[in-house]
Amino acid sequence: MTFEQLGITAPILKALKEEGYTTPTPIQQKSIPILLNKHDLLGCAQTGTGKTAAFSIPILQHLHLADRQGSSNNPVRALIVTPTRELAIQIGESLSTYGKYTRVKHAVVFGGVSQFLQEKALKERPEILVATPGRLLDLINQGFIRLDQLEYFVLDEADRMLDMGFVHDVKRIIKLLPAKRQSLFFSATMPISILELASSMLTDPERVEVTPVSSTAEQVAQQVFMVDQLNKSQLLLHVLQSKNTYPVLVFTRTKHGADKVVKFLHRSGISAAAIHGNKSQNSRQTALQHFKEGKIKVLVATDIAARGIDIEMLPCVINYEIPNIPETYVHRIGRTGRAGNSGTALSFCDILEVPYLWDIQKLTKITIPVTDHPYKATQTAPVVLESAPKGYKKPIAQPGNSTNNNPRKKGQWFKKNKGKNTQKSALSRA
Prior knowledge:
Elements: H1 10-18, H2 26-36, E1 41-44, H3 51-65, E2 78-81, H4 85-98, E3 106-109, H5 116-122, E4 128-131, H6 133-141, E5 152-155, H7 158-163, H8 167-175, E6 182-187, H9 192-201, E7 206-209, E8 220-226, H10 232-243, E9 248-251, H11 255-267, E10 272-275, H12 281-292, E11 298-301, E12 316-319, H13 326-333, E13 343-349, H14 354-364, E14 392-393, E15 412-417, E16 420-425
Parallel strand pairs: 1-6, 1-7, 2-4, 2-5, 3-4, 5-6, 8-13, 9-11, 9-12, 10-11, 12-13
Antiparallel strand pairs: 14-15, 15-16
Helix pairs in contact: 2-3, 3-4, 13-14
């Protein structure tokens, strides 16, 4: 199937051809006809499947072909809400690419920067607005944005929105929308909380799924390295030097951890930069641009960037720290193996992170192979499991707890025993 067969209008087809796009991805093949017929849509697709084009192209086409008489005085007609600044900017770039031969204007607004330029962009009367929830509500409250004549609403990366605590902001936004509209809801995973949110904003939606819920991309080769926490930096250096698969995206759980990894790489003579919530928007964009251009070899990011980095030829992702939310793992490794390309996802796992690995394997229904390396962990645990061993539960204490009597610091888990906790070494479970 080609884009021509989907009924795409000539100006958009011209832009797609110039970008080398001829064959739509599965999510685009299934979604675009539904959206061109103005049905609501519930889309389940992991990141990197082409869903930005799946919703951007129909909206651009609807607005391009619509009666534009008096449109210069109309408020926003299409709203796309997304969780992160990076993803908002990425969607804005896609709209510019696909819509460059249409007359449809768009604007992008997000927090963390002065709103002066965003106010100026809104005065140009954009028909499409891409926004993060907090800045959108701020500008609505200040009277810069009206949604009373909105025709199209997209909630993108809904599960990430909930993970980041935006659920109340999203519900406030939905209450401001006109009842008569076309609504599009996209999420990489579909837990009960997401389905409940979708039911509150969709009317008789068509449902599209292009991959099993919570699955990882088939073209991504996954490996886990068991390693002591103190040796992770040396293992990272070993992997980077031996595999030489630049550029490499490295994920940490904390902002401090990201900065620490970057400093270590600089001392080791490897160009690197960090992006996280404490960095200014300009520095984050500069780092990301330098990474795309090959000026830096390694980009170290926290999960705030997991959904906003779109690099088609990214060969490798490294989980320097295992995420404590299993769905986050799916989103992280979705940064590689995009657009049909192959990719590699490597995860460094210390004894304290083994329960997180169990959760990931249970969610994805796969067993991630353990790889040999020079910095083997001095403590071992039963990692080739889809869940915790029977009779055991994960302790409440989290990695990084400095309490001296934290059993996880000794590589131990609690065993259930008639309501009381007794300790048993993880080594005996190996």
